Amino acid sequence: MPPLATSARGSHLDEHTRGEEALTNFTDDQKVYTTPNGTQLHGDSLELLEGLEDESVDLIVTSPPFALQRKKAYGNEDQEAYVDWLAQFGEAAKRVLKPTGSLVIDIGNAYRKGSPTRALYPYRVLLKFVDELEYHLAEEFFWYNPAKLPSPLEWVNKRRIRVKDAVNTIWWFSKTEWPQADVNKVLLPYSENMERLLKDPEKYYKTTLRPSEHAISKHFGNNNGGSIPPNLLHVPNTESNSNYLRLCRELSIKSHPARFPAKLPEFFIQFLTKPGDVVVDIFSGSNTAGMVAEQLGRKWYSFELSHDYAALSIMRFLPSMPPETAHKLYQKALQETVALPDEARHLSQAALDAAEAGLDIALEEREAANQAWGAAADQTHDSKSFDSSEHAEKTLALAKERRVAAEKEVKKAKQALTTAQAASAALDAFYAPETVVPNGDTSTEVE
After folding, report:
1. Per-residue DSSP letter, 129
2. 34: β partners
3. Residues 39, 339: contact at Cβ < 8 Å?
4. CATH class of the domain comprising 15-188+229-338
5. Could you confirm whether 63 is annotated as catalytic?
6. CB neighbours (10 Å) of residue 205?
7. DSSP structure class, residue 186
8. How far is CA 88 from the centre of its chain?
9. Of these four, 35, 71, 170, 321, which has the most CB atoms within 10 Å of its CB?
């Protein structure tokens, strides 16, 4: 089995996807930041979709603003207009999708206003896209998020007449009946029982007729590299330790309120695309999909209406970077296009140089403090009179304080250098070019 592209990175894409000019027609003021593989843009997604050439996209994976009763600061459509509103994007998306392309939509659920009964808009979206826009429903997926908070509070927590809604519906639409897909790219590890069977099939395998009257074939014991995943995706939306949230917290900046867990777009990008293919997120938010596409060696374009959120999503592409350095790039992204990783590397190298210089200064001060302390100790030992002895003791005490302070500064400078080195290494690792294997696949071999 070819190696999975779980850590393929960099910009070694084929000629078709490498030339942005051949695929897009975006203006400089729409671009927020660029990476070797992708571009974050801000503006109306319908207008930005016009910047993509016909049949140039392999996958659109997105999570549109949900039709919630409680409107959020980043904007929502009323439920009554939601289906027609979303259909506009579905129609525009169909033009840019390749015949083998897919449109994956994570669509949230909601209750009817003032009622403990469900709104049907997710199913109306499905019917609209299939019946009127002539998409094909390749398969429906269900995202189970065990970390999801109980909602709505009135029916679940207060009156306790409904259970917690922990599942989102995901529609996998395709432009034709035969979209590109490869289950081998998303196989799950075998269960312990299956592993035992594979090690000793004669001991564990028996041809038995099941209650359904289906017989288990002897081929059931073949090792196919993993088990086929179900359409129930168990992905907790807990990213409290993510680089994006870390930087937002440390800089006291409000993060985007609705974030993809990285494993969700990763599944569909691995399943429905190959390295070098084009992935688009038309409601990118904090740009999780773009980050995942970058790391998997896919070309990507992410669209976000809010310029501030689009600029803030740059934090996902600055692994382990100190907050003050990341903030400079965020502020610049609000004003002009930031070119990653070059501009990040420039700031990272400057921070590394400053840390090295700071350590040199701290070491010189420690050496001077040690010499001063030694001289003061000699002076105290040689003092004959009471007055000179008292003066020498004070000098020694001051020298000792200086020595302790210098040692603290050395420790602080070493820590700063370690942090700067780690940030530089993390940046290099994030943007490291992938290995190009002989069959044309772009992935990183794992021993």
Report:
1. I
2. 39, 339
3. no
4. alpha beta
5. yes
6. 14
7. G
8. 27
9. 321
Residue 286, exposed/middle/buried by CB under 10 A (0-12, 13-18, 19+)? buried
Tell me how far apart the alpha carbons of residues 236 and 240 are, in angstroms, rounded to a whole number.
Answer: 11
- pTM here? 0.82
Distances from the Cα of 278 to the Cαs of 267, 321, 338, 342, 436, in angstroms?
Answer: 15, 28, 21, 23, 18
Q: Which residues pair with residue 94 across a beta bridge?
A: none
Alpha-carbon distance 427 to 153, whole Å? 42
Catalytic pick from 36, 45, 56, 64? 64
> 3-class DSSP state for residue 216?
coil
Q: Name the active-site residue from 56, 63, 151, 320.
A: 63
298: left (phi over 0), alpha (psi -120 to 50) or beta: beta
Strands of the sheet with 338-339, listed across from one edge = 232-234, 136-144, 167-174, 97-107, 57-62, 278-281, 299-304, 38-42, 31-34, 338-339
Q: What is the pLDDT of residues 300-325, one digit of tens each?
A: 999 999 999 999 999 999 999 999 99
- Per-residue burial over 105-136, b = 16 or more CB atoms within 10 Å of its CB, e = otherwise: bbbbbbbeeeeeeebebbebbbebbeeeeebb
Length of the chain: 447
The predicted-structure confidence for 41-57, as pLDDT tens digits, reads as follows 999 999 999 999 999 99
Instruction: Name the residue with tokens 């000699």.
Output: 378
Active site residue 182: no
Q: Taking a C-beta distance cutoff of 8 angstroms, is the pair 426, 319 a contact?
A: yes
Which of 58, 106, 165, 277 is catalytic? The answer is 106
65 catalytic, yes or no? Answer: no
